[in-house]
Design the sequence.
């Protein structure tokens, strides 16, 4: 089982392109112009309301907060609500991107730093932006927001600033302004907890990822 | 008739490893399926659910037709410039630190994966759902090489335990009842006397078992719903989160995708996302839509060290520039399966390969050769619902019709069918004989004893699964027509 992978790829690539280009009018592909596309328009003045109604429809819950310093107590309350052990994985101890002051974590919570290992019951992350059209939170993988926190914990709490909500999927990409070579390793568009309907088409939450998703919406300004 | 497509021009080599081929036996398999009570029970439970959810999701948006149009614009444009966008995708993925591989045939795809496994000395592989790997029957190839492979999508995991192929492209275990799933889990897992009688308990059990597999695996393999040329990314659409765990935890992530999955940019991807989940599960968007763009960076605390994308052709480039190019617009949502009266009656396994339902009846002959699957283009009532619900507007009945024509031209239709068709053609060209025959037929049909004799002793197999029409007419169409025109004159 030893193939020269480089050569193998070169030969196959050429064969595949020959077959594709046989049908094209121009031998050398020119940069084509994609036809313009329509985007669904939303009532900009009601973005938060639209977002929250779609978000709730995905079996998620939310709380509005006006100050980031409330987060530790709310996280503790959430563990009590779901009757889980009080272990939290997050890299937002100081939440520097959101606020300058370090957070005051209660002793009852055991904090660990990412990556998540599957042993922590809760994960805390922040969403870069959110989509009103679908009620989705958008998380970019980074040192502060590692992907394992989003998927390996039993319950996921996400912080979002109200002013970061955008109307539709397209405006979300625009907001992130992504370009090759500078891509976050992963962008996760999250709409509700993990779910499956693979057994008798009955929806069951918590298939492999979090069993619940909770949003802390930080009020604007 | 426009017909330039040559079936399976690369020979039948690709068939040796591409999974169990039983497409020749559609008739036998579907008869068997109709008599399988457990399967019928499972199909009955599934029936309607998807149709209802989809129509509700569509009613919830202002103009789904316009969403469909935008998505179709994207695909038409991309297929017109496929070479350009594939090149752009490759360039950008390399810029992001990923590696691109090219496979003409399914076994080449397997060979590339085995090569990567060998180089990394991988012992265990976890998989997210990938129809491309089903085309290649990858699991068998990995197992043959002594590698432990585990499917992590719940439905795929169930059928892996049952050693069966998927019976639906988005709900692979749709044919299993919860009792069957419980039996499979009891057989495979060390459960003791734990209860497993609810769906919640079954899902939890799978979560528990698969969690360890996720944490210990050497390589993760997933499919991709789209490849974004402009950013060099793979887009993965799931509900369970298993795809993301597969893409994040192991040290290497391999994406298996076919060449037509590429789209120009993220704006184009958005147009397709808008129709994909609504058509598939009736959701506005799935729980997780992820854009994966390479291995972990210096700052990242998790993610794979290696990121590979393998691009599979498997006859697709041969469909370009033929009427079957339409099939490359398929986004694998499964709406045509859910709305198909044939699929709903016999389930997915009767179709004999990885793609069932109307889209499978077109794709399977194109990928595995018409000779091997000549029953499939006939597994349709031409009711047209598949085309109606297809978000990409693929003219599935027309494509099936073309395959039937081709089948006839290549003399693949059974002798019986050919003789019947020829006799019918001859009869309708001789009106007098035709009228005479319709008169006799009517007399037979209105006579209960005679008609039952025919149904019981002459056309036995036909009437096994069909009922004889009741005929109380006062004459053939022509007899009644003549009578009424006479009456009008007088």
Sequence:
């Amino acid at each position: 089982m030893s193939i020269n992978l480089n050569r193998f790829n070169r030969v196959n690539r050429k064969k595949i392109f020959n077959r594709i280009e046989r049908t094209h009018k121009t031998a050398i592909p020119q940069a084509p112009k994609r036809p313009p596309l329509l985007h669904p328009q939303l009532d900009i003045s009601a973005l938060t309301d639209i977002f929250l109604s779609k978000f709730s429809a995905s079996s998620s819950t939310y709380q509005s907060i006006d100050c980031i310093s409330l987060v530790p107590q709310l996280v503790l309350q959430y563990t009590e609500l779901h009757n889980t052990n009080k272990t939290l994985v997050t890299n937002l101890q100081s939440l520097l991107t959101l606020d300058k002051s370090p957070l005051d974590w209660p002793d009852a919570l055991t904090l660990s730093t990412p990556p998540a290992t599957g042993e922590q019951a809760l994960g805390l992350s922040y969403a870069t932006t959110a989509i009103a059209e679908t009620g989705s939170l958008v998380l970019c993988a980074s040192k502060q927001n590692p992907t394992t926190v989003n998927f390996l914990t039993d319950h996921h709490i996400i912080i979002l600033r109200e002013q970061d909500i955008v109307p539709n999927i397209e405006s979300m990409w625009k907001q992130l302004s992504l370009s090759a070579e500078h891509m976050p390793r992963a962008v996760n568009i999250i709409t509700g907890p993990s779910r499956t309907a693979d057994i008798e088409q009955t929806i069951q939450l918590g298939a492999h990822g979090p069993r619940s998703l909770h949003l802390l919406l930080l009020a604007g300004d | 008739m426009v017909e330039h497509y040559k079936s399976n021009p690369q020979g039948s080599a690709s068939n040796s490893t591409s999974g169990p081929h039983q497409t020749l036996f559609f008739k036998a398999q579907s008869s068997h399926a109709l008599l399988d009570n457990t399967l019928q029970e499972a199909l009955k439970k599934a029936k309607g659910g998807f149709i209802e959810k989809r129509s509700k999701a569509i009613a919830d948006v202002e103009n789904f037709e316009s969403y469909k149009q935008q998505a179709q614009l994207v695909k038409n444009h991309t297929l017109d410039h496929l070479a350009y966008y594939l090149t752009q995708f490759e360039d950008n993925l390399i810029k992001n630190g990923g590696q691109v591989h090219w496979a003409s045939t399914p076994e080449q795809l397997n060979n590339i994966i085995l090569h990567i496994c060998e180089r990394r000395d991988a012992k265990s592989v976890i998989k997210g759902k990938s129809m491309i790997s089903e085309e290649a029957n990858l699991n068998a190839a990995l197992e043959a090489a002594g590698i432990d492979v585990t499917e992590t999508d719940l439905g795929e995991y169930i059928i892996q335990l049952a050693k069966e192929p998927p019976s639906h492209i988005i709900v692979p275990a749709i044919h299993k009842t919860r009792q069957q799933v419980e039996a499979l889990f009891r057989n495979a897992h060390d459960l003791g006397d734990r209860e497993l009688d609810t769906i919640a308990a079954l899902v939890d059990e799978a979560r528990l078992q698969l969690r360890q597999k996720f944490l210990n695996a050497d390589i993760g393999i997933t499919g991709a719903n789209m490849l974004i040329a402009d950013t060099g990314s793979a887009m993965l659409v799931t509900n369970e989160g298993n795809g993301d765990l597969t893409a994040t935890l192991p040290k290497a992530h391999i994406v298996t995708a076919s060449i037509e999955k590429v789209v120009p940019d993220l704006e184009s991807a958005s147009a397709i996302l808008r129709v994909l989940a609504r058509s598939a599960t009736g959701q506005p968007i799935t729980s997780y839509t992820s854009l994966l763009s390479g291995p972990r960076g210096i700052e990242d605390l998790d993610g794979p060290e290696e990121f590979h994308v393998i691009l599979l052709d498997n006859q697709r480039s041969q469909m370009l520039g033929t009427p079957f190019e339409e099939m490359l617009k398929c986004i694998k949502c499964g709406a045509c399966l859910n709305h198909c009266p044939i699929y709903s009656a016999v389930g997915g396994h009767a179709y004999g390969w990885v793609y069932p339902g109307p889209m499978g009846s077109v794709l399977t002959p194109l990928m595995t050769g018409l000779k091997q699957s000549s029953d499939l283009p006939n597994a349709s009532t031409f009711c047209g619902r598949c085309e109606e619900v297809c978000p990409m507007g693929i003219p599935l009945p027309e494509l099936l019709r073309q395959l039937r024509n081709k089948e006839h031209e290549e003399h693949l239709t059974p002798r019986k069918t050919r003789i019947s068709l020829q006799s019918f053609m001859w009869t309708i060209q001789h009106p007098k004989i035709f009228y005479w025959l319709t008169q006799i037929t009517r007399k037979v049909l209105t006579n209960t004893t005679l008609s039952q004799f025919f149904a019981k002793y002459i056309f036995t197999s036909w009437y096994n699964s069909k009922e004889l029409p009741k005929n109380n007419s006062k004459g053939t169409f022509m007899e009644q027509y003549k009578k009424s025109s006479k009456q009008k004159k007088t």
Remarks:
- The first helix of chain B runs from residue 26 to 35.
